[in-house]
Write a structure and sequence with these properties.
heterodimer, A: mainly beta, seven-stranded mixed beta sheet, four-stranded antiparallel beta sheet, 0% helix, globular, B: mainly beta, six-stranded mixed beta sheet
Chain lengths: 114, 113
Amino acid sequence: GAVVSQHPSWVICKSGTSVKIECRSLDFQATTMFWYRQFPKQSLMLMATSNEGSKATYEQGVEKDKFLINHASLTLSTLTVTSAHPEDSSFYICSAPEGPYEQYFGPGTRLTVT
Amino acid sequence: GNSVTQMEGPVTLSEEAFLTINCTYTATGYPSLFWYVQYPGEGLQLLLKATKADDKGSNKGFEATYRKETTSFHLEKGSVQVSDSAVYFCALPTQQAGTALIFGKGTTLSVSS
């Protein structure tokens, strides 16, 4: 099946700094990618839809100025957490659909803000 | 919009026991339904799916039948193994095929030998 990668898999940063997370579709093109957030022992919550060539669409309650999304190419979307705070510590997961029924998930990035 | 309600755990079973994890949904039309599994320290993996009513998805001994009459997609396995210990998520598209997924809250399964 198709593969979606994320980098880094784990990052620790200091409060107030920014962190960039990459999501790549390795063997297929994705005009759309999705970013989710998962808190410990909880479900995934959709944060935003990343669209190649246009602005991202954010879910209600997600600060677009804090979580910057750039869909730079048909295989790459990036999520930048700006001015990170400890409450931003979470597991961030991206996914990319291929066709009407398949959706491939990245392995996730664990962000810890100290 | 679409929504999903999933039985919350944790579920603790002995090896070879029968497993059922309940999942019900509300949706416009008949969207595809999915079960994903997340093993400790790993990302989400698609376990099985059903793309239309009355379809049965199956994989690795797990099964789920898309029942539109009861709007359910319960996950079952006849004989669980220790290696099945993981978190299981029921999911469906937010609106239509190809869009983001809505996930249930997840059910943690622990299987002991």
